[in-house]
Amino acid sequence: MGTHNYNLTEQFEFTGKAKTLSLIAIVLGVLAIGYGFSAKALHERTFANLLLMAYYFACVCMSGAFFLAVQFVAQAGWSASILRVPQAMAKTLPIAVVILIAVMAAGLYTHNLYHHWNAPGLTDPDSPHYDKLIAGKSAFLNVPFFMARQVVFLGVYSFFAVWFAKLSVNEDLKGGLDSYRKSFKYSCIFLVIYGFTTPIFAFDTIMSLEAHWFSTMFGWYNFAAMWVSSLATMAIIIILLKKAGYMKWVNNSHLHNLGQFIFGFSIFWTYVWFAQFMLIYYANIPEETVYFYKRFDHYQFWFYLNLVLNFLAPVLLLMDRDNKRQENIMLTVCIIVLCGHWVDYYQMIMPGTVEEHHGFGFIEIGTAVGFVGLFTFTVLSALSKQPLIAKNHPFLQESLNHHL
Questions:
Q1: What are the backbone dihedrals phi and psi of residue 124, each rounded to the nearest 5 degrees, phi first?
Q2: Which of 124, 139, 162, 359 is deepest in the core (most CB within 10 A)?
Q3: How far apart are the C-alpha atoms of 148 and 134, rounded to whole Å?
């Protein structure tokens, strides 16, 4: 093993252009949302975009905590020197959770979201709007139980996310293996909870927008999307930090590992997408095909763009070994993947909310830019609070000498 003279107390300074641009982006987002709420005809479209970006924000942060847990349980050494980035994402999760719950609660209250099961009269047999199918699901799909599930699931995710970050700080201060052993133990617990509850979280938040339709694969489809989006986000942050002169210990082998994950889980996302689509298409049962019929009929461009950005682009660009080890190529692919999963969530959410009255303009772009600015501001603020490397991690030397 080689010796290195890296600065293990190096700390990121969140100042200058990054801070200014993130604040400008937040202001642009507020203006876009304000514009959307200025006209009653745009309220539903604005709520749909708020749900899209709040869900995306929360999912990326949740998966940051998931990445930490996976690394601890696997006792992975390669990632020890980059864990501060997913820790910063995990520490931001409580903020994302508050925003997502507020958006869902407001959408339910105003009937701009979840009206397929929350509209008045749907469960009342004496109402002209009575829906037997929705009435049969009302024990599960009712506002108090729906919001309780969201609060419990997201609250538990946030607790573990913050706890993982706290244990890492304690490890820096005290050294030894106590914090690492606790991280391993709590990661095992978290992964079991996360694995069983994230599909239900996706069923509630997204699939129930079209409550007459269901798919048991939908939860894993969403899991694949949030996981690969989080990996791409991590890679972008690490690459940009390196370009700014930070994290000099990160080498092309670390990028290679991240590239392998992004490549592999882009294929997994496509596998789940195709398995769900193929079974529904082949069976040709009307109550199932209606989901894809809407997307073929009114969202055909987005439907095919989704596959190009989330399957073809990452697979073709990351198939070559050398491409995974080049910063600029990895940065480009990760940006494509993040845009691709915005498209993915767009065609999941819009047909069940605004239906054929969708659009792509200032509301969509401004809301997305605003949330990107908010994510950047909160994550980089969290990242600046501790040194960029967990100096007492037991596998740190393995990571500093990582070579593929």
A1: -100, 110
A2: 162
A3: 19
